[in-house]
UniProtKB/TrEMBL annotation:
MF (Gene Ontology): odorant binding; olfactory receptor activity
Family: Belongs to the insect chemoreceptor superfamily. Heteromeric odorant receptor channel (TC 1.A.69) family.
Gene Ontology BP annotations: signal transduction
UniProt lineage: Eukaryota, Metazoa, Ecdysozoa, Arthropoda, Hexapoda
Transmembrane is among the record's keywords: yes
Protein name per its UniProtKB record: Odorant receptor
Mode of membrane association: Multi-pass membrane protein
Amino acid sequence: MMKKSCEKNLETLNIETIGNYTHFLELPLKFVGCWDWFRKPKREYEIIANHVYLSLVLFVLANLPISLIVHLQTEWVDIMHSLNEIADGLPSVASVAIVAYFALYKKELYELINYTNGNFKCHSARGLTNMTMLKSYRAARNFAFFYTACTLFSVTMYVILPVIVHLWTKQPLQPWVYTDVTRTTFIVFVFLRQCLAQAFVGLAMGQLGIFFASNAILLCGQLDLLCCSLRNARYTALLHNGVQHSALLAAHKDLLEDERHNYMYNTSEMRDSNYHYDDKLRHFIGHKTSYNIYNPAYDADTSAALHECARMCQVINEYKMKFEAFVSPLLVLRVVQVTLYLCMLLYAATEKFDMVTVEYLAAVALDIFVYCYYGSQIILQADRVSTAAYQSSWHTMGPRPRRLLLNILLSNRRPVVVRAGKFLPMDLHTFVVIIKTSFSYYTLLVNVNEKGERK
C-alpha cells in the first residue's frame, strides 16, 4: 500500500506540463455567445457564423426585458405593485450586459487566456519539497463542471415547473412570460422560447461566476507554487550543486511541517522531482552526501533561485492586473444587480411568503458568495508569500541573497486584491456589506409602503 502511494506521488510530481488551463470554460462560453465558435476565423463563413450566433443570443436575451417593459406599460399601477416583475427582469438585463461586454472585449479575454497558458508554471522549482499545479487545475475544472450542472438544473426547473402547473391547474402562464397565452400552439412556442432564453440567462450569469472562480483558483495555485519555490530557494541551490536529495531530506525533515496548512489547493511532496519549473532535467541525481548549508559558494545559485521567484511574482502581479481590468466592470454590475435583487425578493417574501422566494434568496446569496469567497482566497494565499520568505532558511544565506529576499518581501507588501470597479474588494467582508445593504433597502421599501398605505 505504501509503495503504491509513493508511486502515485511520483507520478503527480512528474506530470507533463499543462498546456491549457482553461479549456473547460470554452464550450459553455461558446453556447452563450461569450466566446467565438471560430476563434481565429480564416474564411468568410466563419466570420458570419460568429456574428450571426452572437446576434441570435443577444436577440433572445433582449426579448425578455422588452416583454417585461411592454407588460409593465400596459398594467402599470405604481412601483410598489410592480416590484416582483421588475425583480424578475434584473437577471435578464444583467445577462444582456454580460454577453455584450464579452463581445466587445473578446480581444482582452483572449489575451488574458493566452497570458495564463503562456506564463503560468506547472511545476515548482526543484527543491527539498516539490509541487505541481495539478490539484488547483482539477479544482478549477471540477468547480466549473459542477456549477454549470447546477445552473442547467435550476434553469430546467424554472422553465418546466410553471408549464406543469399550467397543465395541471389550467392557470395562465402570464405571471411567467408576461403575455396572455391560451392556444396550444402558442404555448409550445412560448415554452421553447423561454427554454432558450432562460438557458442563455442561466449560462451567462453562471459562466461569469465560473470564469471568476476558476481564474481565482488558478491564481491561488500559482501563489502556492511561488510559496513552495521561495521556501526551497536555498535547497534549490544545494541540489543544483550536486547535493543528493536524500541527504537534504535526512537533515531537514521539519520543512514539511512548516508548509502544512500553508497552501490553498496544491500540496507539496518531500520527494525529488524531474522538473525545475517546467524544464525537464536530464541528469539531476546528485553525488554529494555531505555539505555545509552556510557555505558562501551556494550564494550565487541561491540568488539565481530568488531571481526566478521574483520573476514569478512579476507574472502573478501582471496576471492579477489583467484579470482585474477585465472583470472589474462586470463585478460592479453583479454587485448592484444582486443587491437590488435581494432587496426586492425580501420585500416579496414579506408580502407573500413561499418556499420559491426563499429558494431564490438562497440562490442569489450563494451566487454573489462565490465571487467574495474566491476573492478572499486570493488575498489569504498572497499574504502567505511573506511567511514563505521568512521560512526560506534566510539565515544560511549571504548578504546578496538576503537583499534579494528583502526586495521580494517589499514588493509583496501591497495586498493582491481583485476589486469591483477598482474600489470595492471582492472578499467576505464585502459579502456581509451586500447583505446588510440589501436589508437596509428592504426596510426602506417597507417604510415607504406603510406610509403610502396610511395616506
